[in-house]
Amino acid sequence: MLNPQRFFDPNPEIREIAYDLYLTVKDLPLISPHGHVDPRLLAENQPFPDPTELIIIPDHYVYRLLYSQGIPLESLGIPVQDGSAVETDHRKIWQIFADHFYLFAGTPTGIWLSHEFSEVFGITEKLNSANAMQIYDQLQEKLRSSEFLPRRLFERFKIEVLTTTDAASDSLEHHQKIRGSGWKGRVIPCFRPDAVIDIQRSDWRKEIETLSQVAGIEIHSFKNFLRALENRREFFKTMDAVSTDQGVTTPYTHELSSSEAESIFQQALKGKSTEKDAAQFIAHMLMEMARMSIDDGLVMQIHPGSYRNHNRLIFEKFGRDRGCDIPLQTEYTCNLRELLNKFGNDRRFTLVVFTLDESTYSRELAPLAGHYPALKLGAPWWFHDSLEGMIRFRERVTETASIYNTVGFTDDTRAFPSIPARHDLSRRMDANYLARLVARHIIDLEDANRMIRALAYELAKKTYKL
Questions:
Q1: What is the dihedral of CA 24, 28, 33, 38, to 10 degrees?
Q2: Do 222 and 371 belong to one domain?
Q3: What share of the chain is helix, strand, coil (3-state, %, to 5)?
């Protein structure tokens, strides 16, 4: 059984304050404004196939660590792009996972998995080689129960709203099916145009053709490209979308002239664009996306600073998003200046910035968010969505930006049953951070109670207009 006071400071005074603060928010509904759960799960509401399909195969947090220890992804059932054989015996995959479960000790993934096993599934033993099949069977039995159908778990987790991440050309058919089913769970899309904005992608022209078809606009010019994006944003809004998102290598922003943008776009259509063209085009499109957000009210999110698909062998064999993206040193003050000078003072605009470069918290991001009305700081992301990462974030941004220029917690999950585990960890760490401030008489309990509720629930709800 998990210790109810886990993760709190060992100092008794701080620990008591932290636990009391946590108890005031532990049962609040979950706002999940950004994540990667497949909406098909909730549209079809079918039983999860088995523990391996639920916990291991879709979650790069899990299999990237196993791969780092020399375990081939094929042996974990990760699909290969050319369709060649991978392990299909899910019990065998689970045994490998159990044999190496000790690797996750002290990691956020280990914390999430422990919460899932204990709190979600009621497993009372720590997973290991000897009990692997026993626990697999216990999980499998529960997954066959109606109580563990996706929608039932959604309700049990007290998810108030779940945002998925969807390509600009997505038909949103699963969202439409959810809406048409009469189920009351709120699942909304997020507009992510990366595939049609990155002109260096090998499939970019194919993505443009798809965008053209779904928007009903022949995309033969940059002007029509913008019209198609605006069309799709409007469609996403009809499906209750409140936000957009872009994953960019750098947050560099720069406005091109109409002729410059058109020239780069035409070169891309001919397959002749350069890396410099791509960087200039993305910088310009960040400006365009900000303009569109002022027009239609969608919150704009950017996730810079990841060197995507760093391991070429894995990328070529298994494709994108396979756990081999690595953080980059990232600069924000100069790169965002043009966008913030044009749009950052407009109260109709909200820009949420995430980072993988912790060195920018106090030096750049907190001062920027502590000044520009439009700019808010996203939660600690990816490698920093962790016990210590959350504390480092609060310590480095609060004095300059205050908590009220951050957006609370964003779980950014691909693994559906980990959602409550991630929120629980965040609520515990925010309670612990505030308790330390109370113990040092920096804030009082009235402040702390107001702030913990904001961090756990209200800031995300307000920022994303939910």
A1: 130
A2: yes
A3: 55, 10, 40
Same domain, 102 and 28: no
Classify residue 385 as left (phi > 0), alpha (psi -120 to 50) or beta.
beta
CB-count burial class (<10 Å; 0-12, 13-18, 19+) for 378:
buried
**Residue 315, number of CB atoms within 10 A of its CB:** 17
Rounded to whole angstroms, the Cα distance separating 114 from 6 reads 12
What are the residue ranges of helices labelled H in 144-257? 150-156, 173-181, 194-197, 204-215, 222-238
C-alpha to C-alpha distance for 444 and 451, rounded to whole angstroms: 11
pLDDT digits (tens, 9 = 90+) for 266-304: 999 999 999 999 999 999 999 999 999 999 999 999 999
Query: In terms of Cα–Cα distance, which of 396, 390, 435 is closest to 411?
Result: 390
Helix/strand/coil (H/E/C) assignment for every residue in 178-196: HHHHCCCCCEECCEECHHH
β-pair type (166-167, 191-192):
parallel
In angstroms, how far is the first alpha carbon of the chain from the final one? 35
Note the pTM of the prediction, 2 decimals: 0.96
Can you tell me whether residue 245 is helix, strand or coil?
strand
Distance between CA 89 and CA 107 in Å, rounded? Answer: 27
Domain of residue 106 covers: 47-148
Residues 241 and 312 in one domain: yes
CATH of the domain at 87: 1.10.2020.10
The answer to whether 78 touches 63, Cβ cutoff 8 Å, is yes
Enumerate helices (H) and strands (E) in the chain, giving the number of each.
22, 11
Strand residues in 86-174 grouped as ranges (E): 159-163, 166-167
What tokens were used for 121? 């599934």
DSSP-derived letter for residue 84 is: -
pLDDT of res. 321: 83
Residue 211 Cα distances to 193, 285, 442, angstroms: 10, 16, 53
Q: What is the pLDDT of residues 351-406, one digit of tens each?
A: 999 999 999 999 999 999 999 999 999 999 999 999 999 999 999 999 999 999 99
